[in-house]
Prior knowledge:
The structure holds 2 protein chains of 2 kinds. Chain A is of the alpha+beta class.
Amino acid sequence: MIRHCAWVLHTLLSHWRRHPLQAACLLVGLWLATALWTGVQALNSQARNSYDRAAELFAGGAQTVLLAPGGQAFAQDHFVTLRRAGWPVSPMLRGTVELAGAADTRRLQLTGIEPLTLPAGGAVEAEVQDQTSLQAFMLSPGLTWIAADTLAEFGLEVGATPTLVDGKQLPPLHVVPGLPPGMLLVDISQAQRLLDQPGMLSQLLVEPAFAADLPPLPDNVPLVWQEGGEADLARLTDSFHLNLTALGLLAFVVGLFIVHAAAGLAMEQRRGLLQTLRACGVSLKTLLAVLLLELLVLALLGGSLGVLSGFALAALLMGDIAASLRGLYGAQVAGQLALDASWWLTGLGMSLLGTLIAGGSSVLAAMRLPVLAWARPQAWREAQSRAIRLQSLLGVTLLALAGALVVWGDSLLSGFALLASLLLGAALLLPLCLQTVLRLAQRRPAGPIRQWFWADSQQQVSGLGIALMALLLALSANIGVGSMTEGFRQTFIGWLDQRLSADIYVRPQDAAQAEAINHWLAQRPEVSAQLPTWELEIRVEGGPTQLSGVIDHPLYAQTWPLLEAISDPWPPLSAGEGALVSEQLAFRLKLSLGDMLTLDTPAGPWPLKILGRYADYGNPKGQLLVSAAGLQQRWPDQPVSGIGILASQQNAPQLASALRNVFGLGDSRVIDQAALKAYSQTIFEQTFAATAALNTLTLAVAAVALFTSLLGLADSRLSQLAPLWAMGLRPAQLAALSLAQMLMLAAFTCLLAIPLGLVLAWCLVEVVNVQAFGWRLPWHWFPRQWLTLVLLALLAVLLASIGPAWRILRTGPTRLLRSFAHDA
Amino acid sequence: MRGFTQAQEALKVLDVENLKKTYGGPQGQLAVLDGVSLWLEAGHSLALMGESGSGKSTLLHLVAGLDQADSGDIQVGGQSLAGLDEAARATFRRSQVAVIFQQFNLIPSLRVVDNLAFQARLAGRLDEAWLSQLAQQLGLSELLQRYPEQLSGGQQQRVAVGRALAVRPPLILADEPTGNLDENSADEVMTLLLDLVQQAGASLLMVTHSARLAARLDRQMVLKAGRVHGSEW
């Protein structure tokens, strides 16, 4: 039986040996689909692994902590007080440091811990349990625990004592598995020395069991509870990763269209072979098993290539993605890919599943046809025609579902379901739309060649339908995502211009320095105004929210970009009676103008009227703009977070330089408007770099799908063209007609892709963005971009069609005559 | 059965009795075979003639186990096809019969040598010496490494004949085997077919339009509107 199956498999595979280009196309489809999908999954997996490592660093999960109400550093006396009262708390100090002369200039997070009081569990537990390691960590010169990937990324070595930009030296480096990327873990006393914060702490870790009930704190300890901690990061970045996943899935689906097209054509070309096999006594079960085995072999081959390429693609994009996540969310993600076996296996599994879905339908369609009907091409065409009717019905159903989701959907998942239904529904309806248009065109009175042209084009739709669907999907996705991205870019740049109205921004290191800077600036004649802000992070209805206190200054009324507001909102804001709310927070809390929002503050509840709503693009957290005086009244210990300085533009660089020199501030603490805009735009570009890359690849995949289909049809095409040749058309005319047919079909598809792309852009802007980020973008039209994309798509189609057309051109009479022989 | 002696019954390789087959069409049910009975003795040949649509090919397909009759019985080598499931019919096709099609139905991706050996390999009874003899007698020895598309129509049909005979089935079924060939090639293929069928000790049931070719077989039978219209014994 095995030899019997092996011989049947050998026979089926012999088709690919005789048609290596078709085999290559199928493998390319699988390869691209798997590569794009696994590449995106690698990026997500790497990032999520980093968040998990951060979340599970201590006590093995989301950690509840105590911190100062405004999140600022506090005296370690509070730790002593709580320990004496029997509280199982452990001190922690956090800050960032920059290594001098390192290969990577990124800042590293320095965290000081006290290992003896650390809650049990987490990544560092093994080290803490090891007495030798513990002693080395705590006793002078101490150790700096670091993750292996961070060590490699920064070009550091175990045992080295790197110097920081301020001249201080880190204790010797020691690799600890499971530490999050970009983190240096030292003893608390070392951290206080390295961060120049003697006797200060950032937060207290609390034993999870004890923290479960959030017991009330003693009156003399002015700290507040914060639940979740690092778990916020995973929640905040969910939308980012979901967007990536959606794009990866789209590319995967488009790639599978190639597989479907190639597998379907191979099956059609092997109809005779299958009939012969059945006639020679191969049972249906054996044939089905062997066809599936063949798909499995191809899936493993294409999938393996795809997974390897996916790894390479992810490695290529990882830098941009890591930078985006760092810039947008402050998330530290390892820039070097390290993926476990499950990722590789899942990638291969997806490839197998995709191949079964894409190729399985052809196998099943062949199985359903009776053995004798296989001999009749008409039977296959009838089956195709039935399939188009069924597809169209499914397409209409999916579009109806999309309509329902627009009306009733209220989550990000429903937003993506809407996109999927819309795209898939439109793609499934494409063959019917094309056939209807072509039928109408055929009705117009015309000469015989034109009549043949339209009639034959209708015939081509069944063979090219899948590839044209892939083109429709890729092009509409490009138009939709491109419109959204370009709209975002224009809005974002305009918004940055308005929002960053000060010429220089300074972040003082502490309250004393803020005071000193304030005095120094007051004496500078080129400074026309100082705009200090007080920022702190609070939780409003469970979500992290930035509270930003601003002084009463006319510049805010002139420049602050408001989406909607009551008339003259600034006086009540200055009076501490109301707040302006960021668009995403308003969306999350369902706040409208005039609503009341009450904040819990150390000085009691603070009722605020919602005075207006403003855009705050790119900020994953909600934000409230309140009066600086009101904020200081309720959080008296909160130091100034930043100072915006208005100065003449000519003097701004010298002033920034003087600030750096006089107060010893690093570049990151004194930044001029232009640099800040450039930084923000860089983050923006990085965020969409992966999107743009995936989009372009998707279009390339669609071109490959077309090429595959044309190649597969080339043989049967000759027998269709041979009668025209016999009736007096030259091969050059036939090649030109074929080329024109392809361009015409592609052009119709492009025409349909533009409105579909715009609907997609509308869904992205009005549904997905709102659900994912909480903000909406103003609508922009980009006809030039559509035209460019359409021309690009037509160029891709032209390139894909040239080969088959050239083949027709080069076909000699012998080959054409043979077509008649085969027809007999 | 029809008054045959027991010895005669034992010699029958094919016994078809009261076979009926209808197909559904736009105009309702169409009876393609309406109670056809025939038999064929081992080592003998029978030509099935009739106009287009008379049911010849349908009858051949039913005997080959490619399709199932509505009623009646077909016995090949004493084995009844009635009630056989798809897998059993596949086994039957693999080992008990071999079909020669008008369109040759060679496997385009396999070389001539592999096409010749194809069904014999499937049936697990590949005889290299017999295959070599077949190739030589069919004039294919020089063409073994070629692919079907590199052969003429006559050469392709000789490969199809070789493939059927390589498996040495008790019954060979041929559906207009020379329908695509010119007269000379047709005669040549026919001569080879009859010689080799005799050498293989097989029986031959052949559908043909050609009275000239039919005359070369032991018996002839005419089908008309799904019924046996006349036969020469």
